[in-house]
Amino acid sequence: MDLTQGTLEEKNNRAKKMMLWFGIISLVMSFAGWTSAFVVSSSRPDWLKDFQLPNAFIISTVIILMSSLTFILAKKALKKEDRQQTTLFLIITLTLGIAFIFYQFTGFQQIIDLGYNFTGPTSNVTMSYIYLIAIVHILHVVVGLICLLVVIYNHFKQKYNTSKMLGFELAATFWHFIDILWVYLFLFLYFVR
């Protein structure tokens, strides 16, 4: 398909989708760099080999997976023009996103309770990587929540319908990406020592 073909709106839509994918690819590269540095650093003598991620991170992983499901259900409801179900699933997705961040910070508190801090005399390189990777991901979840709030606002303004869903789809794509990214990061931090 020739990308220069189509109406101005179709061209703008393709450009917006392409910009989102460029952003996602750059995020993948950033997190690949941090996880690669994690692997390289794991050969250091002061690396914690026996550290287990707190249970709060397991709970947050389940929550973020559920949020992807509710976003999918919201999109299906929108395609059926069921505004009430769309609203319900968008609000549930937003609530689950907030709960994810809550449990991430609960996990940080559990790490601190074990005696490991991000900086200072009780910190170490292993914990610094875990904090860095999780906090940067949380920042992206916050961006996802802002996108979700915009989608909810636009939904209430009735800007979406079966033929006009670009903003909804862009937000859903980003949300699913940060969900998949967290699952990868969780499995990485859980199994790579």
Describe the protein.
This protein is 77% helix and 0% strand. The chain is mainly α. Helix 4 packs antiparallel against helix 5 (166-191). The longest helix has 34 residues, at 8-41. The mean pLDDT is 90.
- Run of helices and strands: HHHHH
Q: What fraction of residues sit in β-strands? A: under 5%
Oligomeric nature of the chains = single chain
Radius of gyration: 19 Å
Task: Count every helix, treating DSSP H or I runs of 4 or more residues as helices.
Answer: 5
Structural class: mainly alpha
Helical content stands at: over 70%
**Sheet bearing the most strands, described?**
none
Extract low-pLDDT stretches.
none
The rough form would be described as: elongated
- Separation of the first and last Cα atoms: 46 Å
Keywords:
single chain, 193 residues, mainly alpha, elongated
Task: Furnish the topology, listing elements before pairings.
Blueprint: H1 8-41, H2 55-79, H3 83-113, H4 125-156, H5 166-191
In short:
With 193 residues, the chain is mainly α.
